[in-house]
Amino acid sequence: MSKLFIIFGSAFAFLAVAFGAFGAHVLKAKIGEQHLSVFETGVQYQMMHALGLILIGILSITVFQGQSSLLNWAGWIMFIGIILFSGSLYMLSTTQLSVFGPITPLGGVAFLVSWLLVIIAFIKS
């Protein structure tokens, strides 16, 4: 599981760079400044939490030798958070359909829960 989080985190980081370039070079001319800002927020949070997934994978391997179910939960919840939070912002900014707006806070809550689980894993160790 630990290596999988490193792989997923690296893939999400790769995509964050690609989406950032897409936003700067393609979307900038096609959507308004407000929607571009929303898109950029999605990219920033995706990159931060991609690095978080990589960190969870490394901590799981080095500190916990793959034996922390809390870190496994943290990784999966962070994975879901990236999809919900950043994904909803990408959809909201590019389609301008407000139906995607209520999904974003669910991703934010997933981020908070995942970081809390990392804290609890270390407190319990």
Automatic annotation (TrEMBL):
It is found in: Membrane. Its main location: membrane. The chain crosses the membrane at residues 47-64, 71-91, 103-123. It is a multi-pass membrane protein. It holds the Pfam family DUF423. It comes from the Bacteria. The keyword Amino-acid biosynthesis does not apply. Keywords: Membrane, Transmembrane, Transmembrane helix. InterPro entries: DUF423. Belongs to the UPF0382 family. This is DUF423 domain-containing protein. It comes from Scopulibacillus cellulosilyticus.
